[in-house]
Write a structure and sequence with these properties.
Oligomer: single chain
CATH class: Alpha Beta
Structural class: alpha/beta
Mean pLDDT: 94
Largest sheet: 8 strands, mixed
Number of domains: 1
Shape: globular
Number of helices: 8
Distance between the termini: 41 Å
Low-confidence stretches: none
Order of helices and strands: HHEHEHEEHEEHHHEE
Strand content: 15-25%
Radius of gyration: 17 Å
CATH topology: Rossmann fold
Helix content: 25-40%
Length: 237
């Protein structure tokens, strides 16, 4: 793939692009946000590990950009690998058709992990493991027209920023199954997440705040959040 446009961009350049092509990022979940993040990163040359046990459903195609009607019922992980390698034939994509649990959480190990599961139980598992292994983590979830992005990177923020568990109540959506999805929110969040990934891989500072969005209201804002000194996860690590 020709990365000339990235190489001309001063904040990336030739060396930065070379570095991106040497990195591997794990995407946990390749649905609404994840499918768009995967495509953006693939086009940027970032190698991927994809973990998702789900199948492609017709109702989800409106918000999952990688898939087409003919992909219905296929496994998302397997089909995403095929499509991403067609986009960038130089890309290294490894997929895992599995649900994450304590026995296989090691599968997420890479240069950076992105949690896009929209499932707080899995997020708890991913958050704890990344903290233990000192792997940068980017979390994002959504419901309706609203969403969040949180970056958990102890090396970048010297231990001052919150982990997912610290601000769990702010991140959880109540009754999200009844809220539906305003499709543009998944694409906006994907762009914000992908940019945060690239900046982290190139050692650019990300903002150590919770990013809240409400696309229907055209509202994007940062919220100052602090590490919970009594957090049952990060305070004991």
């Amino acid at each position: 793939m020709d990365f000339t446009l990235h190489e001309l961009f001063a904040d990336i350049g030739i060396e930065g692009q070379k570095k991106l092509c040497e990195k591997t990022v794990t995407l946990v979940g390749i649905g609404g946000i994840g499918s768009s993040v995967a495509e953006i990163l693939a086009r940027a040359g970032v190698n991927l590990r994809i973990i998702d046990k789900g199948r492609i459903l017709e109702k989800d195609i409106m918000k999952q950009c990688l898939y087409r009607l003919e992909d219905i019922s296929k496994f998302k992980a397997k089909q995403s690998k095929k499509i991403l390698e067609e986009i960038n034939s130089q890309l290294k994509v490894k997929t895992f058709h599995e649900d994450l649990h304590a026995g296989n959480i090691f599968l997420i190990e890479s240069d950076l992990v992105v949690d896009l599961t929209n499932n707080m139980a899995t997020s708890d598992l991913v958050n704890k493991y990344c903290l233990e292994k000192k792997i940068p983590l980017i979390f994002s979830n959504y419901a309706g027209s609203k969403g969040h992005v949180l970056i958990v990177d102890r090396s970048q923020y010297s231990g001052v920023g919150p982990c997912v568990n610290c601000i769990r109540e702010k991140l959880e959506f109540k009754d999200k199954s009844k809220l539906g999805v305003y499709v543009p929110v998944t694409y906006l969040l994907a762009s914000l997440v992908a940019s945060a990934v690239i900046k982290n891989l190139l050692n650019y500072g990300n903002v150590a705040k919770l990013l809240n969005v409400d696309v229907m209201k055209t509202d994007i804002r940062h919220e100052s959040v602090e590490k919970d000194k009594k957090c049952s996860v990060c305070s004991v690590l």
